[in-house]
């Protein structure tokens, strides 16, 4: 199971083309997501009159890191939206740039990863929109993105996520998803999600889009997120600065493939994967439960190119929780102002959701480990924003009492400035092989993957990871052919 299967199923394809005609659907290409200048002007004109979260097929063209930071009518900008963490806040000398997912439809970049999984089967007809239900197993945001894309593409959807995820996620899904299934546990209870998909597979109308195993996930992140991070660095770097590293917490590990692209362009940089200290699967073959919403654990995703990963960094979930409160309470924001931050910078700190904060903490730990300087830049992404976690902030206030300037200073010192280089590991070749081998227990023993494919991921990277990344061109050809048959582009 290396490359994505792009075999055409004529009956399903004909049904999808007809449904696209009926619902005014034009599908964007990967090339257009890389470079929005390629998007037709008449589509841009429609976007000028469309809200970011509107359930309108034209919002497929906002699956893009270059969106303007607008809730309504936004178009595109050269430099992706990002948050820079000032050294007075991070406690390290190097620049930390975190690219923001808030300005995607649904307020989360997972709408892109889910597109990468659905589009190949939609434009080949393997997924028949008149028969199949799109099933989105997730620890929270991926099923939101999948349900939204399904709605835009006039497909029925089933969202699966742990019952302990934030209230905001469930409230929003009730308006979009065809069906919602809450599985036992929290972020780290991924196996329970997989078990539910096995139940659903008994119904042939249920087609599973498992982000942890779908190669459309790394295809999208390599070709879209990776390119956008490179654009960000090139557009804001100062003379003499180098891209020293990139850090991404491992949800489905799709974002790690953006690091694959960056390592090709900047060969000297380090690529780190983050996880929760309370569930140290990569670091210590461990297990447990944690509160960093949006990342899943106790297994190694099939789509993680472990051989290309330089470091694992574990983050205490208490750090991310306390900083969420600091960045989103009035007293905390007043404290940030005392550090010299502007109102604009403080507002941008609300662009960080819980996993985004964890990503930033990974960057800080990497900077301390490698003793990075003002000449170094480390990049990451913010999957979503604090919009999805207002109820979590309220829970923290109830748990710890009213917030204060003193509590804000304490949280900053304990949970950010006080970070140390413990609970992290630079991965040697044998260490990477150990982590890769953990895939066997989940994917071969439990999920039915072939051991030959597992070995190919390690020993034949050219015909696995490189081949998948290169399929963006093949997918774009199929998308263009699909749009030509639908015929709507000609009538714009």
Short description:
With 492 residues, the chain is an alpha/beta fold. The protein is built from 22 helices and eleven strands.
Question: Explain this structure to me?
Answer:
This protein is an alpha/beta fold. Helices cover 46% and strands 12% of the residues. It has helices at 10-22, 30-34, 41-47, 87-90, 110-124, 141-152, 167-176, 190-200, 216-236, 256-265, 281-284, 317-328, 330-338, 343-348, 354-369, 390-400, 405-417, 429-437, 439-444, 451-459, 465-470, 472-486, and strands at 82-85, 95-100, 133-137, 156-162, 179-183, 206-208, 242-249, 270-276, 311-315, 376-382, 424-426. The strands form two sheets. Strands 1-2-10-7-8-9-11 form a seven-stranded mixed sheet, sandwiched between helices. Helix 12 (317-328) packs across helix 13 (330-338) and helix 13 crosses helix 17 (405-417). The protein starts with 9 loop residues before the first helix and ends in a 6-residue tail after the last helix.
* Helical percentage: 40-55%
What is the CA-atom radius of gyration, in angstroms?
21 Å
Shape: globular
Query: Beta-strand level of the residues, as a percent range?
Result: 5-15%
**In which order are the strands of the major sheet placed?**
1-2-10-7-8-9-11
Low-confidence stretches: none
Number of helices: 22
Structural class, please?
alpha/beta
Distance between the termini: 39 Å
Q: Give the biggest sheet.
A: 7 strands, mixed
What is the averaged pLDDT score? 94
Total count of strands: 11
């Amino acid at each position: 199971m290396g490359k994505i299967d792009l075999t055409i199923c004529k009956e399903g394809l004909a049904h999808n083309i007809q449904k696209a005609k009926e619902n005014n659907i034009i599908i964007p290409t990967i090339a257009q997501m890389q470079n929005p200048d390629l998007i037709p002007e008449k589509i841009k004109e429609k976007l000028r009159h469309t809200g970011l979260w509107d359930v309108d097929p034209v919002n497929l063209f906002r699956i893009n890191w270059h969106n303007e930071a607008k809730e309504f009518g936004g178009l595109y900008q050269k430099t992706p939206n990002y948050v820079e963490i000032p050294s007075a806040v991070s406690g390290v000398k190097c620049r930390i740039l975190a690219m923001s997912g808030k300005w995607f439809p649904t307020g989360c970049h997972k709408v892109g990863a889910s597109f990468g999984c659905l589009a190949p089967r939609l434009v080949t007809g393997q997924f028949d929109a008149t028969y199949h239900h799109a099933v989105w197993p997730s620890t929270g945001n991926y099923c939101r993105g999948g349900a939204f894309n399904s709605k835009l593409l006039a497909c029925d959807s089933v969202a699966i996520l742990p019952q302990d995820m934030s209230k905001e996620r469930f409230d929003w899904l009730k308006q979009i998803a065809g069906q919602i299934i809450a599985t036992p546990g929290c972020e780290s209870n991924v196996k329970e999600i997989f078990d539910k998909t096995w139940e659903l597979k008994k119904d042939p109308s249920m087609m599973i889009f498992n982000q942890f195993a779908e190669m459309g996930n790394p295809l999208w992140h390599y070709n879209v997120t990776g390119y956008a991070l490179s654009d960000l660095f090139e557009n804001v770097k100062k003379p003499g600065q180098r891209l020293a590293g990139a850090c991404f917490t491992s949800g489905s590990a799709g974002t790690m493939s953006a690091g694959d692209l960056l390592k090709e362009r900047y060969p000297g940089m380090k690529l780190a994967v983050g996880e929760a200290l309370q569930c140290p699967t990569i670091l210590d073959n461990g297990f447990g439960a944690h509160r960093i919403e949006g990342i899943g654990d106790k297994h190694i995703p099939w789509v993680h190119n472990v051989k290309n990963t330089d470091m694992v960094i574990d983050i205490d979930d208490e750090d991310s929780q306390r900083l969420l409160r600091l960045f989103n309470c009035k007293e905390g924001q007043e404290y940030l102002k005392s550090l010299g931050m502007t109102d604009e910078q403080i507002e941008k700190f609300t662009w960080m959701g819980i996993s985004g904060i964890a990503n930033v903490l990974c960057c800080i730990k990497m900077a301390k480990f490698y003793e990075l300087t003002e000449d170094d830049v480390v990049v990451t992404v913010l999957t979503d924003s604090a919009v999805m976690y207002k109820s979590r902030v309220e829970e923290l206030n109830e748990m710890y009492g009213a917030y204060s300037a003193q509590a804000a200073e304490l949280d900053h010192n304990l949970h950010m400035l006080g970070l140390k280089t413990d609970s992290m590991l630079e991965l040697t070749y044998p260490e990477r092989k150990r982590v890769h081998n953990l895939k066997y227990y989940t994917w071969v023993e439990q999920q039915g993957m072939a051991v030959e494919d597992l070995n190919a991921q390690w020993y034949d990277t050219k015909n696995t990871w490189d081949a998948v990344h290169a399929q963006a061109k093949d997918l774009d050809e199929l998308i263009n052919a699909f749009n030509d048959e639908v015929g709507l582009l000609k009538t714009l």
